[in-house]
Design a protein that fits this description.
five-stranded antiparallel beta sheet; Hypothetical Protein Yjia, Chain: A,domain 2; Rossmann fold; single chain
Length: 324
């Protein structure tokens, strides 16, 4: 492994995890905009052929690598190691942030820093930060195991979207989190906003605590790391959408199917600005982004993530929403 070109100081790494739609990218952008003490390198991992979250990272002056079409805990892990090596060779940063997919078990991601001696000379895992949707997490834990795994491995849990629930719900969620992970620190947040000095570069990661939660934490051959029941479906269109038809179809799909997360960039007929599309369960929003650049193709890129989704039916429905 080549020697890094920067100071030999060991670079801290924070893993940002959490179930689909919890607010990970919002937290990432909040860190990049609000923290001036560090020069960050960012690794964004997405499941699916079209990368959306990488394009939503606002602070592009920071070094960024995007790993698409896979989960960091399995097929893309080799790319993660190579990405870190590439960053170290280039230098110019003093902190690494890794945003995992919403269906990633952070355990194997953490193993990358514990089990590979060549990395330990240059980088050190500082914390696993799990963002939790206070409104949806209890339902999510009933429906999929990975939502609980993400909490169990957390050094910090950001109990996010607290403005959407009452105190009784916050109490139930906090109690469940404590049952899964009595060692984690719970921070209640709205829009993933948290005092960053309490979150970054504080050496919160402890292997012994992780082994207490999961005795097989260091076992890279452990079964059950994959969650193939949740799939991602990506779509791209060069034509613009009719906004009324698009909103009606997305609402129908969100109500009818088990869609955990939907997101993308949308071209709308008669508009000179691109629109951003965000959906979590059956709640979705469409809002204006920047103006289209002259050299850009005014197309749409959309991703739907959920259980037992019919890709053909979704594509057929979307095509019916294209403007004539």
């Amino acid at each position: 492994m080549p020697e890094p070109t920067t100071s030999p100081k060991i670079v801290p790494v924070s893993i940002l995890t959490g179930f689909l739609g919890a607010g990970k990218t919002t937290l990432l952008n909040y860190i990049l905009k609000g923290q001036s003490d560090y020069k960050f390198a960012v690794i964004v991992n997405e499941v699916g052929k079209i990368g959306i979250d990488g394009q939503l990272v606002e602070n592009q002056k920071d070094e960024m690598i995007e790993l698409s079409n896979g989960c960091v805990c399995c097929t893309v892990r080799k790319d993660l190691v190579q990405g870190i090596q590439k960053l170290l060779k280039k230098g110019g940063f003093d902190y690494i942030l890794i945003e995992t997919t919403g269906i990633a078990d952070p355990g194997p991601v953490a193993q990358t820093f514990v089990n590979i001696p060549a990395l330990q000379r240059f980088v050190q895992l500082d914390a696993i930060i799990t963002v939790v949707d206070a409104e949806q997490i209890l339902k999510q834990m009933q429906e999929t195991e990975v939502a609980s795994e993400q909490i169990a491995m957390a050094d910090f849990v950001l109990l996010n979207k607290t403005d959407l629930v009452d105190d009784a719900q916050l109490g139930r969620v906090s109690e469940k989190i404590r049952a899964l992970n009595p060692h984690t620190r719970i921070l209640r947040t709205t829009q993933s906003e948290v005092p960053l000095k309490e979150l970054l570069d504080i050496h919160a990661f402890d292997v012994d605590r992780k082994l207490a939660v999961d005795a097989d934490f260091l076992n890279e051959m452990k079964e059950g790391r994959h969650h193939h029941d949740i799939t991602s479906h990506s779509f791209a269109f060069e034509q613009s959408f009719d906004i009324e038809k698009f909103e009606k179809f997305v609402q129908y799909l969100s109500d009818k199917e088990k869609v955990y997360r939907s997101k993308g960039f949308v071209s709308l007929k008669g508009q000179d600005r691109r629109a951003l599309f965000h959906g979590v369960n059956n709640r979705f929003h469409i809002f204006w982004d920047r103006a289209w650049k002259p050299e850009e193709t005014r197309g749409s890129q959309l991703v739907f993530i959920g259980k037992k989704l019919d890709s053909t039916a979704i594509e057929r429905g979307l095509r019916a929403c294209l403007a004539s």
